[in-house]
Amino acid sequence: MSQPLHLTEKDFWKHQSVRKIWDQIVPGEPIETLPHTLSLEEIHRYCRAVGDLNPLYFDEAHARKSPYKGLIAPPTIHILLMFTCTPIDYYMRAPGTINAGQSWSYNIPARPGDTITLHARALDKFIRKDRLFVIHDNVFFNQHSQVICSGRGWTIRPE
What we know:
The chain is α+β, with helices and mostly antiparallel strands. It contains four helices and five strands; from the N terminus they run βααααββββ. The radius of gyration is 17 Å and the shape is elongated.
């Protein structure tokens, strides 16, 4: 299922039948991912959606004078990239998935035109109080193999 979910898709149940369920999640197994070229339009749409209008994301002249020497994406752009870099069968897309916690490290900013790749895997899965938990690891890279950000999260699975 090497196709991304279109960013404007509103039917989150549309591909539910192809998403991996608990029994199909194998700790340590790399998740299939897709490279994604981040556009300035996507950065702007994301920033407007979350209400972050920092001039580092919108004003080229201002951004050139900053330590970044040009436009950047906000650190939390990895939220968008988690979906643009994964195919429709990715288990994290399942409706009913609950974020039980996460920890992220931010190294360098993503920039418009960067081609982003994601290395992702489930690290562990366990049952506690009749809930299905998955611990997962994600690392985002740019086209120069530089780490943009990395994180570990815990989710409660619907099935």
